[in-house]
Request: fold
Amino acid sequence: MSETTASAPASAIAESATPRGRRARIALRGLQIVLALFYAVASALPKLIAHPSALESFEEMGWGSAGMYAVGVLELAGAVALLIPVLQSVAAIALSALMVGAFVVQLAYFGGEYALTPVILILPLALIAWARRGSNAELLRLVRRRD
Reply:
């Protein structure tokens, strides 16, 4: 563990050695796994296999199969990135942005019938982004090292 990671407030949940901190780390990791499975299986997969319900929705919006596949790939990439320690915070932020878009789409095209779903998903994603924000510094170090 680096000195900056150990002393940064961002690592309070991510690095705590207390039993409570350990339980929080495990719970947070479990949440990341559940969300990754949700995004990969329940959200991205129907789009990537062109399930009729997904295709119908994207056709109704005028986005067609290209838009459906693009969103599916973004969701799958976010799901995978949620499980990679150096990408987990960025992935949560990116998936949150995608959910803001989903919220707007639900309001604009579907009368807001399921508009609450993306809002609900933003809450655990925001928690992950905040709790794992220390990984952003590590990612930045890795990117700068390649220059």
